[in-house]
Amino acid sequence: MATSVVVGEEVIRNKQVIFKDYVSGFLKESDMQVINGTLKLKLPEGSNGIVVKNLYLSCDPYMRNRMTRVEGPNLFSSFTPGSPLTGFGVARVLDSGHPNFKKGDLIWGTTGWEEYSVITELEGLFKIQHTDVPLSYYTGILGMPGLSAYVGFYEVCSPKKGEYVFISAASGAVGQLVGQFAKLMGCYVVGSAGSKEKVDLLKRKFGFDDAFNYKEENDLDAALKRYFPEGIDIYFENVGGKMLDAVLLNMKDHGRISVCGLVSQYNLDQPEGVQNLMCLIYKRIHMKGFVVFDYYNIYPKFLDVMLPYIREGKIMYVEDIAEGLESGPAALVGLYSGRNVGKQVVLIARE
Amino acid sequence: MATSVVVGEEVIRNKQVIFKDYVSGFLKESDMQVINGTLKLKLPEGSNGIVVKNLYLSCDPYMRNRMTRVEGPNLFSSFTPGSPLTGFGVARVLDSGHPNFKKGDLIWGTTGWEEYSVITELEGLFKIQHTDVPLSYYTGILGMPGLSAYVGFYEVCSPKKGEYVFISAASGAVGQLVGQFAKLMGCYVVGSAGSKEKVDLLKRKFGFDDAFNYKEENDLDAALKRYFPEGIDIYFENVGGKMLDAVLLNMKDHGRISVCGLVSQYNLDQPEGVQNLMCLIYKRIHMKGFVVFDYYNIYPKFLDVMLPYIREGKIMYVEDIAEGLESGPAALVGLYSGRNVGKQVVLIARE
């Protein structure tokens, strides 16, 4: 993503959310700044990138990790201080120097936190073919979080009918889908979330068998024993820390833990220590981390499954849409205190 | 295991190591007491147990866990205060009320820390058929630790030729075998141990490619980076705690961690917290605990593999044999400070 002012050609305002500097501790809105940049809408001769108009931006927990200075090779590079944040989004192609994309195409993938972006890294961009569903869905249920839920549950957990499934951050973009996949498979499903409203959503909208507000539980071990007197077969891990320690004590023998995220840890300078790993042995637990990028090749198959589920109303989906790029920093910060209800999206432009 | 004094029949002295009371913190010799009990060598009419003369007893790290009061269901029951310790051993059958065992048979399995035991729980006892190898081997390379090494490496790690393998507590009963299995498979193998003598043993006797004394490393992360500049494919976990945290930072993508034991934690009232679990995600790590009992059904197959290895000298094996039941408490305590060099065994009786 680059911004350049070119005088005498078609140069327009390009509002941007700038990453000010590396962050330590909890992310604050003031770690980001909204500025008015400019952009030339036409690509330079010979470029094989694309120019896009951003429509929706996605707030995803992993973004906090890109705000810490990363030393050495890592899954993600750090954001560049002084440049716009980048993240998943939905955009319309305005100009293209690449044969796979043409003006007018809708795409989802990594773009900038700005009104318009020049994208030169096209690997991992998907063309949107199905527009009978809301476009914002491609930041969530039909995008990276949706595919994460799908592979993290079906591929990592090897679920079976009748198993006991626990999901943390269960009303979030990934959790709400995992719970519904588990119900479709005939599992018993309980989720944790951080407010009464979210707990109600889990039980009433998403069909979870039960749900609880972890903020109201002094003793997470006791809470889990109440909801899973027979133990947990599958834990879909989104939060880490104290919840993981409590879950380890409540896993059944040969249980599986799919490690998708550890959002409770991302704003801590030192992660909390997890103490109950001895349970991995006693309970013969299989714990596996995964990264959704490894499964991009099954995205077409995933769409074939998900689109009918959505069209037929078999899977519900709740988004929390903030309006305007200016609301982006607050929306992103809110993710780490659980302010959002459902998938947090930022609407940049209605076409 | 029970002891009874019966007057007027064949009653003999039965020296025993008594578990005095539940232990907190580091195990001390004074947590056990050697006493002279007595035992009637003949089974009561109608019993389907066996009476055995114990020949070798095994000191195994998990035994410390049985010295803590266990609440609720667990893999192991706690030892009973006032009664002898129990553990793996090799014994000769003196009397049998069970059709599967007859007087004169040699067995290995769970017996008492005493000269003679009455065993009524016969599940998990194996008859020893091959006596061209030292009988003590059935407490180690041909017993529970050997089978643990075998399944923990081959079944849990899915090793491939050329992979980078790290083993902690590498000169112990399990570690020394895992390293040799990995070398036989064509892996690059490094082990950690707690003394120069052990490090030499790993390199010279067991054929490890390299080894280091973890007690001399201030920075385990830096040490691992030195021995594995390209990272670790397989970690065979015997110790836990700080070593696990350092290993997580040095795993390669799609690495596997076989969790066999966490001996560094067994004497702590609160386990150390492991902080680097985020690596499970970034590196797509598969971490799996296992319990050897689940694999007892493959013991015959295991023997078919191991006996030729031993007879042909393809696998080396080092034992640390303490003489006499009186030396049992010190031998067991020494296990947790790493005093033993190789598999710790207690010789109870030469026949």
From TrEMBL, chains A, B:
Keywords (A to Z) from UniProt: Oxidoreductase
Species of provenance: Castanea mollissima (Chinese chestnut)
InterPro entries: ADH-like_C, ADH_N_2, ER, GroES-like_sf, MDR_fam, NAD(P)-bd_dom_sf
Domain spans labelled Enoyl reductase (ER): 37-346
Keyword Transferase annotated: no
GO terms of molecular function: 2-alkenal reductase [NAD(P)H] activity
Record-given protein name: Enoyl reductase (ER) domain-containing protein
SMART domains: PKS_ER
Oxidoreductase among keywords: yes
PANTHER family found in the cross-reference section: PROSTAGLANDIN REDUCTASE, PROSTAGLANDIN REDUCTASE 1
Superkingdom assignment: Eukaryota
